[in-house]
Each structure stands twice: as structure tokens, then as C-alpha cells.
Amino acid sequence: MPLLDLQKLTTGLSRTWAGFVRDWDRSLRAGNYPETTRYNYLLAAAQSVSGGVFPRSGRRRCG
After folding, report:
1. Contact status, residue 48 vs residue 12, Cβ threshold 8 Å
2. Regarding predicted confidence, which is higher, 14 or 61?
């Protein structure tokens, strides 16, 4: 069973961000990054754009 499931990872993201995450995964695979490294990078990116670092309200989260 593969560790990385892009469908689950991009759930809740806009189509634009989901496409960015898929493209980035393709680039990481081309660079022969291990699956665990790709998973960690892509998970951090998906969490960032889903409201963690870049909240949709326009206000930054503090603390």
C-alpha cells in the first residue's frame, strides 16, 4: 500500500492548489526523492494552504 495518496492529501484544497501539489509531486518523483520525503513535503504544503499558514480570511494566525 503506497504511503502517498494525493487524492486524500489534496482534499479540501482549491483546484489550483491541488494542481500545484500534484505538479510538485511529479517534480519530486523526477528528482528520485523517496516516498516518505515527498509525503512530508507535500503534507506540509497542503496543510499550509488549507488554512494553517495562509488562512482564507486574509488575517494571519498568531500563536
Report:
1. no
2. 14
